[in-house]
Structure formats: C-alpha cells, structure tokens
Amino acid sequence: MTLKTSPDLSSLKLRRLRWSDAADFDSLQQIYKEAFPGSERKAPSRLAMMIRCPEYIFLAALLEGTLVGFAIMIAFENSSAGLLEYFAVKHELRGHGLGQRIFELAVGERQISDRFLLIEVESDKLPSPHQQISARRKNFYRRLGCKEIERLNYLMPQVSEAVPPPMDLMVYKSALPKSIQRSAVENWLKDCYVQVYDQSATDDRIEAMLKNLPDNLQLI
Question: Could you tell me which CATH number the domain at 10-218 has?
C-alpha cells in the first residue's frame, strides 16, 4: 500500500489474530523483522508459540484490508499489569498518525484496559548512534500518556544471540497515579522475567534493579 495523502484513520480496524490466520501472521512477521533489530527479536518459532497462548494478544491493524501495523501484548496471569511487547507500523506508512491510533485502540482491549501496561523502550540516556531516535520514540509514548518509572535501570533479558541495548521501562494506564509502590514494580519485573523471558523470579538482575530504590517510585 502506498499513500499519497494521509490515510483515513476512521477506517483503521484492529483485529485479533489467531494461529489459523496464516496470511496476516506472515505479514505481521515481515513488519516485525523490518521494525526491530536482531537483538530485540524473538525467533519466528517463538512468535508461533506465543500466538497460541491465551494470555497473548496479537492485534493486526488493517487499512482497506491491508495489514499496516500490529501490537503484541501479554496480560500477565494473576497480576495488575501487562506488557506491550512489540508494536510497529509498516515503514513506508509512518508519520501519518497510524501508530497513535493503533495504540489508542490496543489499550482498550478487554484483557488490557483495566491493567497497568508496561512498555520497554530503548534508552536515550547514554550517547549512542540511536540516541535521537530513542528520544523521539520515548516522546511518542509520553504524548500518549505514558510515564517512565524514575530511577529504575531496566535490565532486559537477552532474546537472541545479540545483547539488547540499554532499555527504560514506561507504564500506561488511563488514569496513572503520580507514583508506584516499589513492591508493585517488583511484582511486575518478576512477571516480565517469568512470563515473557522464561527467567527465574529470583533472578539476580531483579534484585539489582530494585537495589537502593525508595518505597515509592515517581512516574516522570
């Protein structure tokens, strides 16, 4: 799909994908491969396992029947939170407001709407070739109402042979408080490590992230 003018976002629809939706799942994987560096991508076989799990929500964004973006979220079991694990718009269609609209529709999903939604964002705090891009991405989420968990140095587990870049953790809810209890953040980190990355709830990295943090963490 090539757009000469801004698309009619009122016609954008989100549809939950199932494993049987082979063609759209293939299109999603193509955008996924283009949008994320190898250090942040899971293997296709892993995505195929995830889409079969009821706690995972694969949403295809469709314009005129064409898949133009997607959101992959997980609603953590026995938790107040979920994770926006992957979110992307087809490269040539960026800059038309599609990302904002997809996000607005995705956070209204029944399994997610009452939860805190965590978002892993590449950090813009250290000098790097991607610092400006990371800052723009973080500002995109801020405009949508997301906040960063102050003083939390997030350690994303490795999902491929490549080491992931430094990451920050942001959070969204329709009515965010000004701060989050440290104990809640601890539970969310354990949820991420266990349910997303197949790591232990007693992983040393969780303790390292929480070390010296106050009882209440500001959202900035």
Answer: 3.40.630.30
